[in-house]
């Protein structure tokens, strides 16, 4: 397992890291004890960065994760959570006010059974008034950083242009990291186009969803996936090709996503301890670059014309 620094934060994190969204039952129902075991399995096998949000499972993911963390050595992991997206009783809500951001951080501390947060993110800024993020949300988080309640501040979004827009409009050092998903995987590497920019601003890069929310899996996409049918079909053909080579597309996808040394870490999420171990084994094996070329040839023109690029 490789370890790389997130920007200039001093946090050296595992190239593969644990996304805790699955602990909230975001993808399907989970057995809580198994989910807690998945967290221990990740950390005990070298994954030292954990990402969560109050939004995942409407506080459930933080609550379940907290049950694991209270029995862990705080020095063994870095913890990232978020503000801005929430929900209750099955209804999603958004609040990017400075007041709510501050309250949310302290509430997360209680649920997670920790006394500081290593990285606090403004969650999915595309849903916000981004001027409010600049003038209210981020200043509130910077104030908490100055108090030591949080150590570092970041922003997350699907749209890379939104991340750049905010960074361009705040004082240097306000945003220390970005989290972007579905843009550094076998079918879409748009994130690579922005790495020079982020590095010029001393902003660290965290990647997520190496399987492109199921596109790059033998199981295929869930019904709600927004990808066009042509891309779904191309990725299904790629998965079949990998299967014929006895090389699961999930393995190739994860190996590819962690292969870029300019990206600090790639998040995956699973509440299954066996899947956690399997993914760790994937990144500890050499990647088949010839198969990467074959898969990307199959995906072809769909590679950069996808739902995630809009």
UniProtKB/TrEMBL annotation:
<feature type="domain" description="NADP-dependent oxidoreductase">
    <location>
        <begin position="16"/>
        <end position="298"/>
    </location>
</feature>
<protein>
    <submittedName>
        <fullName>Predicted oxidoreductase</fullName>
    </submittedName>
</protein>
<dbReference type="GO" id="GO:0005829">
    <property type="term" value="C:cytosol"/>
</dbReference>
<dbReference type="InterPro" id="IPR044479">
    <property type="entry name" value="LGALDH-like"/>
</dbReference>
<dbReference type="GO" id="GO:0010349">
    <property type="term" value="F:L-galactose dehydrogenase activity"/>
</dbReference>
<dbReference type="Pfam" id="PF00248">
    <property type="entry name" value="Aldo_ket_red"/>
</dbReference>
<dbReference type="InterPro" id="IPR020471">
    <property type="entry name" value="AKR"/>
</dbReference>
<dbReference type="InterPro" id="IPR036812">
    <property type="entry name" value="NAD(P)_OxRdtase_dom_sf"/>
</dbReference>
<dbReference type="InterPro" id="IPR023210">
    <property type="entry name" value="NADP_OxRdtase_dom"/>
</dbReference>
């Amino acid at each position: 397992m490789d370890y790389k620094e997130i920007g200039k934060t001093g946090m050296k994190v595992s190239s593969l890291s644990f996304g805790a969204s699955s602990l909230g039952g975001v993808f399907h129902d989970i057995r809580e004890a198994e989910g807690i075991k998945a967290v221990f399995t990740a950390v005990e096998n070298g994954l030292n960065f954990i990402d969560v949000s109050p939004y995942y499972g409407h506080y459930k993911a933080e609550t379940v994760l907290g049950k694991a963390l209270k029995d862990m050595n705080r020095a063994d992991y870095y913890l990232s959570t978020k503000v801005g997206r929430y929900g209750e009783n099955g209804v999603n809500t958004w609040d990017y006010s400075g007041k709510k951001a501050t309250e949310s951080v302290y509430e997360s501390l209680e649920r997670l059974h920790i006394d500081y947060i290593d990285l606090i993110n403004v969650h999915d800024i595309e849903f916000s008034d981004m001027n409010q993020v600049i003038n209210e949300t981020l200043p509130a988080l910077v104030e908490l950083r100055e108090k030591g309640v949080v150590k570092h501040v970041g922003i997350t979004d699907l749209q890379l242009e939104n991340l750049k827009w905010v960074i361009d409009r705040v004082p240097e050092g306000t945003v220390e990291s970005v989290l972007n998903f579905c843009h550094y995987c076998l079918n879409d590497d748009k994130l690579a186009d922005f790495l020079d920019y982020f590095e010029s601003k001393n902003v660290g890069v965290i990647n997520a969803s190496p399987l492109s929310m199921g596109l790059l899996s033998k199981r295929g996409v869930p019904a709600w996936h927004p990808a066009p049918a042509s891309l779904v079909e191309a990725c299904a053909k790629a998965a079949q090709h990998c299967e014929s080579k006895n090389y699961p597309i999930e393995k190739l996808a994860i190996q590819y996503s962690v292969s870029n040394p300019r990206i600090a870490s790639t998040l995956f999420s699973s509440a299954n301890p066996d899947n956690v171990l399997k993914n760790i084994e994937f990144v500890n094996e050499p990647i088949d670059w010839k198969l990467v070329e074959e898969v990307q040839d199959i995906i072809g023109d769909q590679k950069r014309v996808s739902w995630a690029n809009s």
